[in-house]
Design brief:
Layout (H helix, E strand, L loop, with lengths): L14 E3 L2 E3 L4 H26 L6 H24 L7 H26 L4 H27 L6 H20 L1 H7 L4 H24 L9 H46 L10 E8 L7 E7 L4 E9 L3 H17 L7 H12 L8 E9 L4 E7 L4 E5 L2 E5 L2 E2 L13 E4 L5 E5 L15 H11 L5 H15 L10 E8 L1
Parallel strand pairs: 7-10
Antiparallel strand pairs: 1-2, 3-13, 4-5, 5-6, 6-7, 7-11, 8-9, 8-12, 12-13
């Protein structure tokens, strides 16, 4: 097998008897068909396993499987087609099944190599993918137009030679493999052994052929099998390692979710004059949204809703910081401006490149008064007598200025009022045309369901958001909102 060859040469055999071709396979061809079948179906099985578990870590299995299948395709189909044992209709597709593997096997080999590489070497293999893909498509097109399957094969072989030189040099030289391959030492040794067997076999074949000796093609298969098995072993180990890592991450996320749940209020306050309902939908296992209730005294209750920028673990850590910070500002709980200033002071300098928005509402059920202030947060919504009021009393978000001012809005509270405190994930849900749910639709839902009690209204609003969001799209942001009915 020449060093430049990444797939076997076709073989033809038939014996003419009268006007009919009868398939007669010499022993060598039977062995070739069996070996090709082994490569073909082993590769397809590996591809099937990779496709059944569609995660990024299984791509390497897919490329190894495709490489094996392409290697075994032609030694199986060519003798069978030449012997006339395949349907006549197969002859129409035979030229393409012969030409396409010749060219595309190099693309698959380059993609395979890319999965094991990092740094600048990964860019080199991306070049091979692009170059071999371009040559392959041009070669297939030329073959379709002219009927010749050898039009650009010399360029394909040249790229194959360069790819093998680069790949084997990196694999066999330890200082290069440590720098450019994403493999632990044990896997590198396995890959190096497979590559060395492949190189020695190729050198042996290319040395003895000019001397007039033609080794059995099984030596080609043996050399490629050694390389393929080593690649397969490394690929499976990488997939299992990724699976183990994912299981560990999922376990840690589950614990993080439990911890985050524990920092949220365990119960909703049961108040004589207020009916409170909460909706909390994290986008991922953990969220950057946070809410809290503060019982100031028998008549005064405060409500906090906050939203850390970003998603996942970083945002969840900031939400946990909000919980700790909130406990330290309880002496200021009756004054929204002081609460927000103190929270900002404690968080400023700790958020790195992130920020937090927050809204804080205090309701005095005895006097019928409410105080409201916010830090860069969506407005407080109040539904009263068939009209929606947007109450804005905003200072800047947490984490930018160490000592900002947060203006306070004072308002009266009446029986029948409905307040809605929410994070921006509620109105930013998008449909298939990238249109946000928006303030207008939120107002329509509030108007159309004003007679429903708070729990029913919350369920209806969440259902409307789900209907609005495109079925193919996942939730794009954490959604949290509090509905407060004055009863």
């Amino acid at each position: 097998m020449p060093v430049t060859s990444l797939c076997p040469q076709p073989c033809d055999a038939f014996l003419s008897l009268g006007s009919r071709k009868i398939g007669v396979f010499p022993g060598a061809q039977i062995v070739g068909i069996l070996v090709g079948t082994l490569f073909l179906f082993s590769g397809l099985a590996v591809c099937g396993i990779a496709l059944m578990r569609p995660r990024s870590g299984t791509r390497v299995l897919l490329w190894v499987g495709l490489w094996s299948a392409l290697y075994g395709l032609r030694p199986v189909l060519d003798p069978l087609a030449s012997a006339g044992v395949l349907p006549h209709s197969f002859e129409l597709a035979r030229p393409y099944l012969d030409t396409i593997p010749r060219y595309l096997v190099l693309v698959v080999a380059s993609l395979n190599a890319m999965e094991f590489s990092k740094g600048k070497l990964r860019l080199v293999f991306k070049f091979f993918v692009a170059a071999s893909g371009t040559v392959g498509l041009a070669g297939i097109a030329l073959s379709t137009l002219t009927g010749s399957d050898h039009g650009l094969i010399v360029y394909n072989q040249l790229l194959a030679s360069l790819l093998l030189v680069v790949l084997l040099t990196v694999i066999l030289l330890p200082f290069l493999s440590r720098r450019f391959l994403v493999l632990p030492p044990s896997n590198h040794k396995v890959l190096a052994v497979g590559a060395l067997v492949f190189v020695l076999e190729a050198l042996y074949v290319n040395v003895v052929r000019p001397l007039g000796y033609h080794p059995n093609t099984l030596w080609d298969d043996f050399g490629f099998a050694a390389l393929l098995l080593s690649l397969g072993y490394v690929a499976v180990d990488m997939v299992l390692t990724n699976e183990h890592r994912l299981l560990s991450i999922n376990k840690e996320l589950s614990i993080a979710r439990e911890i985050q749940t524990s920092i949220l209020p365990a119960n909703i306050p049961q108040l004589e004059n207020l009916k409170i309902t909460v909706a909390y939908r994290p986008m991922t296992e953990v969220a950057g949204d946070f809410y809290d209730f503060v019982s100031i005294d028998a008549n005064n209750t405060a409500f906090l809703v906050a939203d850390a920028s970003g998603h996942g673990i970083p945002a969840a850590l900031i939400a946990a910081m909000m919980k700790v910070a909130m406990q330290s500002v309880l002496p200021f709980a009756a004054n929204p401006s002081d609460v927000l200033r103190q929270l900002n002071r404690m968080l400023c300098g700790q958020l790195r490149d992130q920020f937090v928005t927050a809204a804080y509402l205090v309701i005095d059920a005895r006097t019928g008064k409410a105080l409201y202030s916010a830090a860069g947060h969506p407005p407080l919504l109040r539904w009263r007598d068939g009209k929606l009021d947007r109450i804005q009393s905003n200072g800047i978000v947490f984490g930018i200025d160490a000592d900002p001012q947060y203006p306070v809005c004072e308002m009266c509270v009446r029986r029948g009022d409905r307040f809605l405190l929410y994070t921006d994930g509620l109105i930013e849900a998008e449909n298939s045309r990238a249109q946000a749910f928006g303030d207008r639709r939120l107002e329509e839902v509030m108007r159309d369901n004003q007679s429903q009690d708070a729990p029913a209204f919350v369920d209806h609003l969440l259902a409307e958001i789900d209907r609005w969001r495109a079925p193919a799209l996942t939730q794009q942001d954490d959604i949290t909102f509090l509905v407060i009915d004055v009863i």
